[in-house]
DNA sequence: CGGCTACGCTAAAACGTTTTAGTCGATCAA
DNA sequence: TTGATCGACTAAAACGTTTTAGCGTAGCCG
């Protein structure tokens, strides 16, 4: 069963294709189509269940009402939650979202950008990785709205929305120090992205501000794509061999692995061993004792992203890049 | 900067559009284009960075190399994990995935189907809800490959991939009984979908098989879209007012809420109070004590879905609907 | 009465591909 | 010599829309 086309409707209504198109697009009044014809055509459309072919539409108009969202990994709860919020908000404004994960692979990221480009998405929301600066610059040069989030790319002049990682990290470490902790570890990843570096810088600066000497041996950089088992082993090694009374995990999945590691070596979180995780997770609230965490304001981030995108879409000319840094919240538990 | 079209390439290479198209689509040999021309054109394409406009392609060929994935909620870890696996596997076979969440709204589900339809996706993977049978039937009538997963729709004759919810639930309850539990509660939702009903049936049957009388008061049906606070309150009420020594949560988010509820009223999970969650979650492994869970074999489900889809896509005629039920695994912890 | 504008509608071009049905010359078998 | 086949390529239709330009009639102004 072939699906209906505008032509079928035109024939049925005994009017021209043009007329039907005007009616579909709400230009009937403006183009002075008579009330009678409008009603007749609308009735036929209704009855036949005709839906315009969006592909033909896109081909003709050059836009798609689709926003492309490129993230690191949809199965990470930070991203899946933000994706959901963005999807929701975009949907309410008449936009659809297509998303896809890069898995931190430069090649896949490039491919995704190309795919979105050849599908003529109207705008791009990207949590980028180093190595795709050129591709992003090309999108910008072609006049596409692009918003980076979560991580910024300093070499390229785009709008960006993200949390204040430096301060959140600084504040976390400060809270440890205020509790009298001295030997504070940082478990982070080796991916070379801004927000991870900022968290590291915040850690360092807080130590310095309090006259505590930075010790390289207390910082563990986990290789990004490795097996969880190995991660756990490395973390255990850190905790068993060093004198440590507090630790900041730079991502929520590291914190999860870290908590598993602690559990296995039977080291308890508590007054004499503090833990803070960056990015909250359901498991932290449930853990005994409950784990403190830095919460990124997801709702606000999503809302800001959508606002910036819509601004850019509705303005003809290019808008100046805008950076929005949103404070993160340290939630102290138990 | 307008993007290049096949015509630009043709002009540059001084050949016809047709020739370029043949080369792009690997039909050069078959259409006996000379080696020299092939090389020349390929070089020009390479240098200019030309990418075919997929929209025009789709319009002409009627397919898109895109598979539409419709799920309940991307921020639920079960779905986001399966989405990631499906995306990955599809990607390796040259297909892209577009996904979107229904939020259990019939209207949104219908809209999504229409959106995918008008974008001419090649196939549909849907975790359906009751009320969209007709829409799915229409997709089938139009000859589209459709695979349902997670939940089946008995009124419509589609392929389906899902876990064996009845047995998993039965087995869970049986394990409680084997431990000597007598008053076993079930916390489930009121959404009227097959897999939830099967879990309920498994619960009932296991009690019956062991000569335990089914007690309506031990079954709590949580309204789907309600606030978490209310859910927690209801669960607390259940536990405080009834004599209960074990509970099966029918979804992982209910289990999360349930554990929060238990924590607040300071009821400990342990030998005299057993908990099993349906669908595993990182929080369960980390909980003290660790929480047992029914694991759906995500990897296998994703793989099976993709296989069925590809089979249908590559066979011309319609294939008979196929139901694949995959056993779930009860993981007993601590 | 001639020229304008408004009304109600439509023909046809354009968007960027794929694909069918050729064309034109050269080679080949009979 | 002729008809068929092959090699190398191409013109043009088609996919389903949107949109520009325009057509014929009627009413109105001066």
From TrEMBL, chains A, B:
<dbReference type="GO" id="GO:0003700">
    <property type="term" value="F:DNA-binding transcription factor activity"/>
</dbReference>
<dbReference type="InterPro" id="IPR010982">
    <property type="entry name" value="Lambda_DNA-bd_dom_sf"/>
</dbReference>
<keyword id="KW-0804">Transcription</keyword>
<dbReference type="Pfam" id="PF00356">
    <property type="entry name" value="LacI"/>
</dbReference>
<keyword id="KW-0238">DNA-binding</keyword>
<keyword id="KW-0805">Transcription regulation</keyword>
<protein>
    <submittedName>
        <fullName>Transcriptional regulator</fullName>
    </submittedName>
</protein>
<dbReference type="InterPro" id="IPR000843">
    <property type="entry name" value="HTH_LacI"/>
</dbReference>
<dbReference type="InterPro" id="IPR046335">
    <property type="entry name" value="LacI/GalR-like_sensor"/>
</dbReference>
<dbReference type="Pfam" id="PF13377">
    <property type="entry name" value="Peripla_BP_3"/>
</dbReference>
<dbReference type="GO" id="GO:0000976">
    <property type="term" value="F:transcription cis-regulatory region binding"/>
</dbReference>
<feature type="domain" description="HTH lacI-type">
    <location>
        <begin position="4"/>
        <end position="61"/>
    </location>
</feature>
<dbReference type="InterPro" id="IPR028082">
    <property type="entry name" value="Peripla_BP_I"/>
</dbReference>
């Amino acid at each position: 069963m072939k699906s209906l086309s505008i032509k079928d409707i035109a024939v049925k209504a005994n009017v021209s294709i043009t007329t039907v198109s005007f009616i579909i697009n709400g230009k009937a009044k403006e183009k002075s189509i008579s009330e009678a014809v409008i009603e007749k055509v609308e009735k036929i459309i209704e009855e036949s269940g005709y839906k315009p072919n969006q592909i033909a539409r896109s081909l003709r108009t050059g836009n798609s009402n689709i926003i492309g969202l490129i993230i690191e990994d949809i199965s990470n709860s930070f991203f899946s939650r933000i994706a959901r919020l963005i999807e929701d908000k975009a949907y309410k404004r008449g936009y659809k979202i297509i998303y896809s994960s890069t898995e931190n692979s430069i090649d896949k990221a490039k491919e995704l950008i190309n795919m979105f480009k050849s599908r003529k998405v109207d705008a791009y929301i990207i949590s980028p990785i180093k190595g795709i600066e050129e591709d992003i610059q090309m999108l910008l040069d072609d006049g596409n709205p692009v918003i980076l989030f979560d991580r910024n790319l300093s070499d390229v002049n785009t709008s960006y929305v993200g949390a204040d990682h430096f301060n959140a990290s600084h504040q976390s470490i400060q809270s440890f120090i205020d509790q009298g902790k001295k030997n504070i570890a940082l478990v982070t990843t080796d991916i070379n992205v801004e927000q991870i570096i900022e968290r590291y810088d915040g850690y360092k600066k807080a130590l310095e501000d309090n006259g505590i000497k930075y010790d390289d041996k207390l910082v563990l950089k986990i290789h990004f794509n490795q097996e969880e088992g190995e991660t756990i082993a490395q973390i255990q090694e850190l905790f068993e061999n060093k004198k440590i009374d507090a630790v900041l995990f730079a991502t929520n999945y590291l914190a999860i692995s870290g908590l598993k590691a602690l559990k296995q070596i039977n080291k308890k979180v508590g007054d004499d061993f503090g833990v803070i995780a960056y990015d909250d997770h359901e498991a932290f609230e449930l853990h005994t004792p409950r784990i403190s965490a830095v919460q990124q304001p997801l709702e606000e981030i999503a809302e800001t992203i959508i606002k910036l995108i819509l601004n850019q879409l509705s303005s003809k000319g290019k808008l100046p890049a805008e950076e929005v840094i949103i404070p993160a919240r340290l939630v102290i538990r138990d």
